[in-house]
Structure prediction request, 717 residues.
Amino acid sequence: MKKILLSLCAAVMMLGAKADEGMWLPMLIGKNYEEMVRMGLKLSKEDVYNINHSSLKDAIVQFAGGCTAEMISSNGLLLTNHHCGYDAIATLSTVQNNYLDNGFWAHNMQEELPAQGVTVIFLQRMEDVTDEVIKEVGTTKGEEYTKKFDAIRKKIEDRETKGNKYMVASVKEYFNGNQYFLLVYKKYVDVRLVGTPPKSLGKFGGDTDNWMWPRHTSDFSMFRVYAGADNEPADYAAANVAYHPKKYLPVSIKGEQENDYAMIYGYPGRTNRYEVSYGVNLAINTINPSIVSIRDTRLAIMRRHMAQDKTVYLKLTSLSARIANYWKYFIGQTEQLKRLKIVDKKKKQEDKYVAWAADNNFDAGIMNKFAKIYQDVTPYAKHSVYYTECFRASALARIGASTEPLYKWLQKKETNADSLKKYVDGLKETRRTIMKEFDYGTEKDMMAEMTKMYYDEVPKVQQPDIYQKVIFAKYGKYNADKTYMDYTEYVFKNTFLVDSNKFNAFCTAPSVEKIDKDPACEYALSFVHNYTKNYQGKVETYNAEKKELSKQYVRGLMAWKEGKLFYPDANSTMRISYGKVLSYDPQDGVHYNYFTTLDGLMAKYKPGSDEFDVPQQLIDLYNAKDYGRYADADGSLHTCFITNNDITGGNSGSPVINANGELIGAAFDGNWEAMSGDIAFDKKYKRTIVCDVRFILFLIDKMGHAKNLIKEMDIRE
Ligand code: ARG
Prediction:
């Protein structure tokens, strides 16, 4: 074991062979450095990552749990994407003060708006803890592994944080569980909205342009990190002051050329690059089409209700944008997995691997084992997607399902008041979160339509008994739409989960009988119990075996490719990607330029459109060609550009940094032709879409008139 782990480290250190593909660990950037310099980087190794002194890593944060952001002034000014700030902006907006629609600019710090619940974390250090973890988990698998890993993980994390609520420690698996790192962060919790363009620009192109190039979106928003007087994290207080980061990025408005060096720091969420052909087949044939069709229906319901009422719109827009983003993602992923023949490519590689394994003391039967676990799980795969995506699309179903832990505890007839409080508080917290995005009218339709869809699509033998025992028994079977509507009406009228007074009354004296008698709990628990009793185990077995096989497979691949390109899958930890500004040919005979301009944005302008409208103020600036110093040497205002960096979801908001360590843009998307990228990186097609920092500054300066922010930044001309 030990030896293999040592050679794993060696593998990480030795790569250096290729840029563009790869999400590298900052701590191990070592040998990559020479390649980075060859490609144009002018910074020292220590500028890129240094544990003892400030380096680029200190300017980069994980934003609100799922995005990336960067410090762009000595006063904690933060840049991220519009779609990353979207939830906070929508939450701060009302029909009267609609920052989402109209944009918002603070012209001094007093005007900045506390974005409650938004936190950022700064990486302090990372450390290899493989030996310590392996000593505990040994060669265990499945549930036993999870239990042991959780225990040692928690022990290491607690040792680091020592109960300090502003410290975050996290032990993570790398290389599919062949190596473990501890990451230690400092968490700042007072974050305030500084500025955002109106949604028409921040989300310009909407779902139509999403995941596509050429693009003209100004997908950025700005916040500020606040600290106590000692510059340390502090809960929100009016008296808090701007945080002074160890490092912030200067901003270059010199403009980028094709082939210029481009480096991206950020927090890529999840990739599955070592997925096997069987997994790709299951995604193409079952999982992705199921997700897409459920989301089609779910989105149609939400949009119908959002269009009727601005308040409903503001309540649901963030959730609906998140659902739509990955609805289109799965359409694109499926299309590109097919077009790029990823199954065939993986199969070829797997055959070669098996031949190599047979000669090198690795398991040559591994692919047959993969085949078997996929064969075993396939009959339940669709159900498992419908359980999470369709049943749980309904907010009431989710609240109902979350009574399960309390229900189970109550059934044991224990009397410990602390335990009871723990379960009740858990339920209250889940409900509170769900209710933030709960609209009564939408949710009634959602439950009715999702209940119908589940019945129509999940194999009949796998259905929960609520259909026969309650729904059809009470409301008949022959007019399905009416049946589901009537049933939903009855559930909403009689449950204690929706109305706060009824819910609170339940919480003061919860009982098994009350849960049993509640129609929403009855509904949700019927699905939960059916799934957990009969199918969850099968899916968990598959997950556990897949995890173990993948671990062996990746270990084998690393031995096979020793000395060559190898990087671990994304896991929501900081990574560096380096590449260059680069155009591409999406198809035979078609060339895509590497940048877009305001002229192109105006060419897409559709007055009154939800996706392509443009505020009058920008039209006026465009007509006057009033671009100031943000114009390119070619006279136009560049809006977005592309690079061949390797990023994925979670990188949103990441700084794109030039050879001198200056910010040239905010990464915000990937391109259609490479939507299979999370499963297989395609060098020819894969691009990162970036909002040009000159477009950002132009909007702050000329539209937002926020000279205060322009002055605050270190702008390099
Ligand atoms: N596809 C982008 C990403 O996942 C998000 C773009 C948000 N814009 C939109 N129209 N939904 O990073």
